[in-house]
Design goal:
Layout lengths: L5 H4 L21 E7 L2 E6 L5 E3 L5 H8 L2 H6 L2 H19 L5 E6 L5 H5 L4 E6 L3 H10 L3 E3 L13 E7 L8 H11 E13 L4 H6 L13 E2 L2 H8 L4 E7 L10 H16 L16 E8 L1
Parallel strand pairs: 4-5, 4-7, 5-6, 7-8
Antiparallel strand pairs: 1-2, 2-3, 3-9, 8-11, 10-11
């Protein structure tokens, strides 16, 4: 987990929320504590299995955090190069099922992932970071807008494909975003999630708040394929494809990752948690999920 300025963002903590799927239990009596990090708690719903940071940052706090997100990204040269390779891999699932039409990338950053898609797509991107939107406009000939999905200016039944790449876990109200995505998507259109932390993974369960994808300011919702499909609405979507990218990605180091996990388990058995750093990249940590609107 990267360094988090906890105190700076403590004032942006919201009120306790009901389970996003079950819409019950804002008091937390039907949710158990899954992980704790200072004043952040992750609660797991005992009914549906969804894990949320509760209370988490409000939309105002998230807006503050993500301003100049592009500036932070451009400073991380190695990560930029790794992402370029991963974009090509994430695009492979799309290309198996759709390669043209209108596509919307929600939380598009500077348009990098859009640029990896077929040029037969008519490409649109939205983001709350105006620096990212301006970067996209300067570097690509796609349509970019600085706005939130749910507060957007698009017409219903407009898109053939909507992408949430590494973004749904960041949203204070993902239900609102997904409801709007369903309105914007044509019948038979595709909803694609990728670069999404998978809480139903070996490392998530083993490491909890030392999982490398634990970040209580950024990742305020922790999904599995099951809970993500439930939140989108099983009555609205069929699962078309799913994957858990690790082998062949820029983040894979099988031998070293296996050895670290092995040594960390020894430390856990000896209750020596202080000497455990964050978990390594590993199979199952990330999920890709393609849904098709009924």
């Amino acid at each position: 987990m990267q360094s988090v300025p906890f105190e700076e963002y403590k004032k942006y903590l919201g009120r306790p929320r009901a389970c996003l799927i079950c819409n019950t239990d804002s008091e937390g009596t039907k949710r158990e504590v899954w992980a704790v990090d200072r004043y952040f708690k992750a609660l797991k719903c005992q009914e549906c299995g969804l894990i949320t940071i509760d209370p988490g940052l409000t939309e105002e706090g998230l807006q503050k955090y993500y301003q100049d997100n592009m500036g932070r990204r451009l400073d991380q040269k190695k990560k930029l190069e790794d992402r370029k390779l991963q974009y090509q891999l994430d695009n492979q699932m799309i290309e198996k099922h759709i390669n043209k039409g209108k596509v919307l990338d929600v939380g598009c950053g500077g348009g990098f992932f859009l640029s990896a898609l077929s040029e037969d797509f008519n490409k649109y991107g939205i983001d709350i970071d105006e620096v990212s939107i301006n970067y996209g406009k300067e570097n690509y000939s796609y349509t970019f807008k600085a706005e939130l999905i749910g507060e957007d200016s698009f017409s219903s039944n407009f898109f053939d494909l909507i992408i949430f790449r590494g973004v749904i876990e960041h949203m204070y109200d993902p239900q609102k975003a997904l409801f709007r995505a369903t309105e914007l998507l044509k019948k038979g259109g595709f909803l694609y999630f990728c670069a999404t932390p998978n809480v139903d993974s070996f490392c998530a369960e083993l490491y909890r708040e030392k999982w490398n994808l634990w970040h209580p300011i950024q990742h305020i919702n922790h999904f599995s394929v099951k809970t993500l499909h439930n939140l989108c609405g099983k009555e609205n979507y069929d699962i078309v494809d799913e994957d858990y990218p690790y082998l062949g990605t820029p983040y894979e180091s099988q031998f070293d990752d296996y050895l670290k996990i092995k040594e960390d388990i020894k430390l856990m058995l000896n209750e020596d948690m202080d000497n455990i750093n964050v978990s390594p990249p590993f199979w199952g940590n990330m999920l890709s999920l393609l849904l098709q609107k009924k």
